[in-house]
Amino acid sequence: MKQNYAQVHFSDEQWTQVDQAIDALVVALNPMLVALSTQQRSRAVKMGDGSQAFCRKAVEVIQESPQLIPGNFDTAELVRDLKTHDILNQRLVRVTRLQEKMANTEMALGSDVMVAALEGYHYLKLAGKHEGLDALRKLLGKRFEANGREAEAPQSKA
Question: Does pTM surpass 0.85?
Fold first, then answer.
């Protein structure tokens, strides 16, 4: 095979460990995670990168000036929200990096499979003409009928 982006493959036991780690993460985070509806997400006031400095300064000033804030304003909850936001964001960055690597690896594996399958199909077309594989070759060739032509399989280095 000419391409092999993904070369490490886990055992069933390793996949079980991965699944257990994901389960543990779900159990650990689930009590604090919220699910917002599409409408809630679209209506929510967002604290983007440009608003973070404002929010942090507002929290600081509110904490320093409690006499100016009404008694029913929950300053402690505001501080907890900001702290938890920052802590969660650190984990979100790590999980996002992990998710991107997982997506890239999934793409690489699919590409490796597709390239090898095309190469194998090419060999079947060449060598399998008199080996009783006509029906199988035609079945495999149906994948390319929608394109109006057969795709070029990778050429071997023979």
Answer: no
